[in-house]
Write the structure tokens for this entry.
Amino acid sequence: MKTMIDPILRNFCGVLLAALLLATATNLPPLAHGLNAQAVKMPAPSLKLPDIDGRSHDLAALMGKVVLINFWATWCPPCRREMPSMERLARKLQGKDFVMLAVAVSEDADTIQAFIRQFEAPPSFPILLDSRSKTMQAWKVGGLPTTFLIDKAGRIAYSAVGGRELDHSRIEQTVRDLLKR
């Protein structure tokens, strides 16, 4: 009797899980389309982290460029949803003085590699590892995802907490306006 119940139970659990995932995916709120301007543009905190390939990246070396920094995690549904829009924006602004950095919080390179293998092509921008969340704390990130837009002078010009459609025309125009200054 047990051998017949096990496959039925496993099948039922699989169907139930698929139904829950589908219900969750269809009830997600839309991603937002804007960033919040900072009344006082404060210098960006230090950011020096390795990427998933072990290469070091230092925000200080990017002075003179507009930099979008996105703190995220693979377990965060809005983070996962905004990743394709990050890639589209990076490609649209390729060749400009623009850099996109994705900071993976509290995860290791293997977890990130497994996540990016789900995409047709890996992201073209660096994915940095903040495995102990020290950079996240220094930046006072209160929730994931959190996005910062750094101007050419190294100051935080815009920020946002929560998922964004980062290639939306309003956000793209915000970046292009900063590139002109």
Summary: The chain has a mean pLDDT of 88. Residues 1-28 form one domain. The beta strands are 36-37, 48-50, 56-58, 66-72, 98-105, 127-130, 146-150, 156-161.
